[in-house]
């Protein structure tokens, strides 16, 4: 494990609150929302991989970003992002394919 975070981003073009988006991600990942009352809530997708939601600020319209992070490797982040992408699409969400994130 390193101090580097590897990020992959999924983009969703729909109006939704951050907590509602996290709840759906948690449902899709068969998990729960951790730190829901904080500024950095997350959903664990696998050991060493989690998702965070970035909602536009100040009434900007969608899209919003789901950032999938891994503290182990880029491969883990990509695998979990692809898994989450497929799960959200099965739930009816239209999600852009994963793309490299920055962190």
Your description of this structure?
The structure is a single chain. Strand 3 and strand 4 (49-54) form a beta hairpin. The protein is globular. The chain has two helices and six strands. Strands 2-3-4-5-1-6 form a six-stranded antiparallel sheet. It has a single domain (6-100), classed as TATA-Binding Protein, CATH 3.30.310.180. The model has no long low-confidence stretch (mean pLDDT 90). It is an alpha+beta fold and 103 residues long.
Radius of gyration: 13 Å
Dominant shape: globular
The spatial strand order of the largest sheet comes to: 2-3-4-5-1-6
Structural class: alpha+beta
Which fold name corresponds to the CATH topology? TATA-Binding Protein
Strand elements, count: 6
What is the element string, with H for helices and E for strands?
Answer: EHEEEEHE
By DSSP (H or I, 4+ residues per run), the number of helices equals: 2
**Mean pLDDT score:** 90
- Output the CATH class name: Alpha Beta
Q: How much strand content do the residues show? A: 25-35%
Return the domain count.
1
Helix content: 25-40%
Poorly predicted ranges: none
Distance between the termini: 16 Å
Largest sheet: 6 strands, antiparallel
What is the CATH architecture annotation? Answer: 2-Layer Sandwich
List descriptors.
103 residues, alpha+beta, 6-stranded antiparallel β-sheet, Aspartyl-tRNA synthetase
In short:
This is Aspartyl-tRNA synthetase. The protein is an alpha+beta fold.
């Amino acid at each position: 494990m390193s101090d580097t975070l590897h990020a992959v981003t999924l983009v969703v073009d729909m109006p939704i609150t951050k907590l509602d988006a996290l709840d759906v991600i948690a449902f899709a990942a068969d998990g729960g929302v951790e730190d829901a009352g904080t500024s950095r809530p997350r959903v664990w997708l696998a050991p060493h991989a989690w998702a965070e939601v970035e909602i536009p600020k100040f009434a900007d319209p969608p899209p919003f970003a789901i950032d999938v992070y891994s503290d182990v490797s880029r491969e883990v982040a990509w695998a979990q992002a692809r898994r989450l992408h497929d799960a959200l699409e099965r739930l009816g969400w239209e999600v852009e394919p994963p793309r490299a994130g920055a962190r």
